[in-house]
Design brief:
The structure holds two protein chains of two kinds. By secondary structure, chain A is α+β, with helices and mostly antiparallel strands. About 10% of the residues of chain A have low confidence. Chain B is mainly α. Chain B is about 60% helix and about 0% strand. The longest helix of chain B is centred in the middle third of the chain and has 27 residues. Classes of the chains: A alpha+beta, B mainly alpha. At the A-B interface, α1, α2, α4, α6 and α8 of A face α2, α3, α5, α6 and α8 of B.
Chain lengths: ~375, ~220
Amino acid sequence: MSSVIGQIGARVASEQDRLLAAEPLPSSEDVLAGIGRRRVRAQRRVRIVAAAAASLVVLLVVSFGARTWREPQAAPAIAIATAVAPRQPALGVTRAEEASVPLQFDDGTKIVVARGATAELREVRAHGAVIALEGGTVNVDVVHTPESRWDVNAGPFDIRVTGTKFDATWDASAKRLTVAMTEGTVVVSGPCVNEPLAAPHRKVFTCPAEPAPAEVASVDVNALAPAPSPVEKQAAASAPPPPRETVSALMAEADAARLGGDAAKAKRLYASVRERFPGTDQAGKSAFLLGRMADASGSPDEALRWFEAAARERGGFAQEALGRSMELEQKRGRGDRAYALALDYLKKHPRGPYAAYATSIVDAHR
Amino acid sequence: MSAIPFAPALEVSERVPLGEGREGCAALIADIAAKRPGAEKELVDRFKGHVHRLLTRMLGPGPDVEDLLQEVLFRVFSRLHKVVPPDALPGYVTAVAVLVAREALRKRKRARWLSFFSSHDLADLAPAGHAAHIPEDVRSFYSVLAKLPAQSQLCVTLRHVEGMELAEMANAMGVSLATTKRHLQRAEQELTALLGRDVEVVSSRGASLGLREEAR
């Protein structure tokens, strides 16, 4: 077999020499210019590495020095006093397991983590804070000032508070937020919502499959337990539509199947591309690839049908498809058909990769 | 119907004799070190054809060959002072070309692994454009070759396409003669296993060479 490879190699070398002879080499000036650019890049890399090393040394020296110099701690913008669990850190999670836990801020704002709820104080700002409601209910009573900025996060939702009183309940399993307003206005934003909610309204928010929540016009704000609306229950029963697959994603999956050796799956996916995205470049390419696969599996008739389709359609494989058709017909002994295809090929692609082969077929036929 | 005649194969172009101009190499290196005007251009003139052809053999025709040609010569210039003795310059240039080609082949394999779609793995499917003038059998050959590890690809192309002798290959690849023989044998076995039915496709135009019979 080594001799076969040698002969193939010689043939390849011969074709390459023909190509190399036909194309001029790049000029030495261009090559030297390219080398010059590489030298500049290499010098730049050396400078960057040197600067990075120097910065690292400086950083190490500074951090070592800073550790030995204690700075006075800055006073917190807002002092927080907790009625329960005095060991609870100012920033952190509050789990009101036995009883509700109030978080009192020195501007008068009070946030009560209701019994059974879990909330985290994530950030304290100069004029506000960020509370993340992980589950259950918080009663929020924010003192309004022109600079007030409080946020209550619940799953994908955010409740922007500037001075108001309300209850927020987050059901993590149902991905449902209920906001019941007592005073003022908040703005609720999320993947599918961005709207204000004012007292005395109560509203349930869910995203993305369920429909827009129905507003409850009047409600007893003391009734904290949320009730799902009938519309929500109906919508929850229907499955969301599957995401629309792009032709690129489908082609990539088909190519992966083909390269991975799963011919049956690849054929199915390429056929799907042609069915769902007819007239596209990918549909034409799929026809060519289906032809190749049919040829490789010993189905020349099927291969020819696909190659003929690819030769007619978009996708950029027309000359390869026509060339392969010509080659297939020649192999099968259909000289007249091969001759006709060769003439067609030379007419359409006189400088194509199969031009020499087509010429030899035409010459032999005469 | 008579057998399809094929155009006679061209003579394989002569390679740059490795031992050419030993005295010239020493003088050239000295001139470059002394920054004589035109010395670098002389080196480029002398070796660019050789390197360009070598890279084409090892990687197949493609748009990156010219860029890699610059990379090879850049590295040669960077380490010119390490070429000892100076008359080893031609062999050194070849070895750098092989090294750069190996890096390029490994980079292609990584890119193919990441994308699951490689223009080189499907070199024979490249649409009309840059590769339009490349004959089908050349593209098919490199397409099959691309399935081998980089080292095996180099063994096959240096031996069977470039036509290097084993000792020359060992020098170019930086390994012993025994290792070269071993690598080459393995590469040929791997390629044989891959070619299979594709031998007919790649060699169909070589029917007059009797390849079809030998492949069975």
